[in-house]
Input
Amino acid sequence: MHYLDRRTAIANANEPTLIEKFNRDHSICEMLEKFGYEKASEDEWISPNSSSGHKVKVWSGGTHLTSLSTSDIGIGVEGKNGGINADAFSLLQYYQFGGDMKNAIEHLKTIYPRSKHEPSAILKEQSPQGNAISWKKASELKDKCPPERQWVVHEWIPSNQVTLLYGDGGTGKSLLAQQLCASVALDKPWIGLPVKEGNALYLTAEDDEDELHRRFDAIANGMMIDVGRLSQLEYTSLVGSDALLAVQEPVHKQLMPTNLLMAVEQKIAETKPNLTVIDTLADVFPGDENQRVLARQFISLLRGPAVQHNCAILVLAHPSLTGINSGTGTSGSTGWNNSVRSRMYLRRDLEDENKRILQLAKSNYSKIGTEVKMLWTCGYFEHDGTTTTLDNKAASAMAKRVFLELLRKYTEQGRTVNANGGSNYAPKAFAEDPLSEGITKNGFRTAMRSLFHEGKITNEQSKRATCIIEKVNE
Output
């Protein structure tokens, strides 16, 4: 029985827990060794069915594989980009039971009786490492210096991790990401921030090669260098092609890597880049962004090569309308924000259409809320260092205080303000008020977003419109 038909039959038979238990107790590598696959490297094996030497790729965690050998078609399900995806049970079913799913399931019932949940004894010749977990005593760290944290952009983009960059449509996040790649390749500051020099990869499914050419030319002019110096920067455009980096297994909806993701990881392994950019999330992610489990699985698939090859992976994404209005700049499930260690948000400066603000919205390893302001000039973002004369923390606290004071004043006077725009747009109204204390509309806008996030203000629906009110703790 074909792998896909087997999955459907299992679901109908209400027996998926048996397979889950088997896959939990038996790694792919154990099964490959048992059934005659030859180990070629740390995560690659040669299929005994292949006469051409095509390799089988074992993915991080050892829970599933992808084979590029058509001779392995019977063991799994063919992915969208070719290749055969399979798990440990697939190998057992194919090699030990000739593809007979029913007999394989019956065998599992003898291993996992309902009254007992004993570990499987099917593999008598297990690898010595098997399912062993390595434990260490914290006391052994005594007198050892902890390793220094590695960054591609200090305190903004950590190495070995996946970072998300959200940006409103048309703000220039793709340009900003290409500029980052150029800065890494040339060891030049990126919008005023120091970077770690090295190779850089840029993959996009949004812009064709002509547009990429125009941007790199503008970036080179802005950096006052010849584009020929960008030898450490490689790029590819997948416009018009299937750009999915994962596919959903049809029954359990678990994400499986595609051959494209395998090719990207192979390129990372070959070139050892410090930075890999993927543009955009909507083009490479196969599921519903609102599903937390899929969000976590997808980030986990990307984190594997990031950790293994000491590479920062930056994924560009569009915020939802809710994310824009709330100021969080996010989209979909909270699983995206929770799964990454760093998240940035690029937005417009409402007071100047050529200015942008990049905010560090989340960081597990550094202070959040930091902002960098920049100016768009002839297809290039220049750092605007003249706009940060006040201490960020003090300025933020002041703006929030004045925002609440003016909100109370307006409420007492029966005047309403909103968070959506128009003549009653709170940041605009407050910036024009004589009691604004010199805070700009953009300063009040940032304060408003922080107060919403902290739960100190909320929206209230009246008969005519939605207005902002201060929340009172009961």
About this structure: The CA atoms of residues 18 and 109 lie 7 Å apart. The chain has three domains: 3-111, 151-386, 392-470. The chain is about 35% helix and 20% strand.
